Amino acid sequence: MHTQRQGITLFTAILALIATLVIIQLWLVTAALDGLLSGEVGVALPGAIASFVLFLANGGLLLHALRFDRRLQRGRSHGER
């Protein structure tokens, strides 16, 4: 039961971090598009690069959360607590 609580806490924290990073990523895309439409072409490339880095970070966090959940499910199915 103790490991399950830790897993729920970890999963919740990771999801909150992912949500925050997605909001930042949307802000970056909006700022880059606004800069591009106003004629500042130099803003688009750094915005796209930063958005891609956040995309990779979100993917890594999601994979970590899913692997942890799989380990927790395996432990529960084998009778470990």
Question: Care to give the gist of this entry?
Answer:
This protein has 81 residues and is mostly helical.
Describe this structure in words.
The chain is mainly α and 81 residues long. The chain has one domain (2-77). Helix content is 86%, strand content 0%. It has helices at residues 2-37, 44-77. Helix 1 packs antiparallel against helix 2.
What sort of overall outline do the alpha carbons produce when their principal axes are compared? Answer: rod-shaped
Task: Please give the radius of gyration in angstroms.
Answer: 18 Å
Q: How many alpha or pi helices?
A: 2
Please give the oligomerization state of what you see: single chain
Distance between the termini: 6 Å
Major beta sheet, specifics? none
Please identify the structural class as seen in this structure: mainly alpha
How many separate domains? 1
Overall average pLDDT:
84
Low-confidence stretches: none
How many DSSP E strands?
A: 0
The string of secondary-structure elements, in order, is HH
What percent of residues adopt helix (DSSP H or I)?
over 70%
Strand percent estimate: under 5%
